[in-house]
Task: structure prediction
Amino acid sequence: MIKKFRLCFLLSMVLACLSTANEKTVEIFLSDASLDAWNPVTNEVLFMRRDEDNIWQLYKVKADAKNPEEEKESLSLNPTNVIGVDASMISRLHKGASDWHPSGSWFITELEIPYNISWSSVPSTRLLAEPGAGWWNNLFLVKSDGSLWIKLTNFTASDLDSGVLYPKFSKDGKMVVWAERIGGAKPFDEYPFARWVLKTAKMNWEANIPYLFDQKTHPLRDGAIFEPQEWGRDNKLLFAADIGYSELPYPAYRIDIWEAEVSGEGEIKGLKNLTRSLDYYEEQSSYSPDGKNIAFMANLFDRGYERRLIRAWRRYKTKSNNFIIKNLFTDLYLMNRNGEVIERLTYFVEKNWQGHHPLVTRSAWSQDEKTVLIALTLRSNITGKKVDESIYILKMGSDQAN
Result:
């Protein structure tokens, strides 16, 4: 009897240890902030925050800061040297959706074009010039301390279909990929996020003023929306796209995670749809540092999503509507490189947010894979408007870390 008790006790201790090893914790890192990019080598986190005029500003802080709010540094309020736009305009323009150069000395970002059409149009249209939408934006290269800003693309306020989205550096820092807008959101049921193509270019770092060259355009199959997510060490590129859904209502609301190979000359080949789900929404993915797994946002728990989508399409069709901002709730998932879902990492959707609903958006990994930074947005259940942006820290269990 004593031996049996000892055996049960030892078994319970083993199970307790395993449970502790697998346990994940989620805690707040920064409030009133949106995750932009994390360089795990320098440990610096770029984040965005709205100022009193509702303009997105850029900041950076160490990921291990004891008091992130007090230790943050402003990068966009007082630039000293700007090439391509008046320096006094930087703080008045939306900026963000950035990516660190591997060296940590530079980052690339989007910057709103001054005096674009939204400034003289309906005020709400300026939402489209924010970093997550990218309309009427140019790419800028920025020194890590925010002192120098260099314009890389040359759209002007008169270019009505202009826009850039989610620039990403290759792991060697020699190339950049981004999405570029080529049309508007008409008809809305076909192009709810407008029309985009993927672009690749090389960076000339030898010049006194670095610049893009050898630009290539990639109109991939029948897709209309393309969002670069991350460039892997094996020259693979993660991007979100609506390829294959052009005949379906609201193809961009069914967006999938894709992977492709990018050659040294910027050619894209070997497209692979990792998520393959026409009735769910997957986006904002990131490779684990060892390259074996991918974290991604999705609404795989929401079995009624496509039903509501079709209902909205039958009602509105080509008319603009706010379906996506009222009906999309997401959490963070983990899949392997074959697209097989391993587990759900967060359960924000299951919490009571007092009349709001959560969207996990961006994620970024620590170098040891024990930590993931997560961007969380809250939207009103009634209006769909954003009411809060926060950055959370997910501490992975030891089995995931290894």
Notes: The chain has one domain: 24-401.
